[in-house]
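Example 3.2
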Amino acid sequence: MDAKTRLFQVFEPSTIPGLSQTANYARAHVAEGVALFGALNDRDQAVHARMQRQELLYHCEKRFHFVLTEAALPCRRCSRDVLVAQLDRLMSLSALPNVKFGIISDDTEYIIGPWHAFWIRDRECITIETYSAELNLAQSQEIELYGKVFEALATVATYGRRTRSIITRVIDNLAPHEPETGS
């Protein structure tokens, strides 16, 4: 499905999307599934697959529009150091020419609330991951509805320098505070 998709529209209210995760962040994220389902601990294999999938970001014929809530950025699913490195990665990705990266700041008043994460693929399929399943919606009325929701969320997001400013503020809040010294 990824290979044929040309436009990915991704909304994530509580986590960093897999396509933009660092290996260490992905490892922590995969560990949640291992703990929740008592699954085999194949984290290294899962992380490797996720990292390989990220090659999609560098195919210039593909376009990506990510919208995250600010609340997703500091969500402590991993150590502080891993999270800071992850946020640094988002800064880099936001500069790619085929990536549009938006953040809905905490002080934004929503037109439509951020109920759950979803991915729109070429306005042909909606993917929603739950704790127990991946839902793939393909009926035209569902695609139209999620298209409207994505546009409403994307409209209230910030982009470019304002997005990088939000990420920098979150990084600064996560960084250990050193005592100021005066002369």
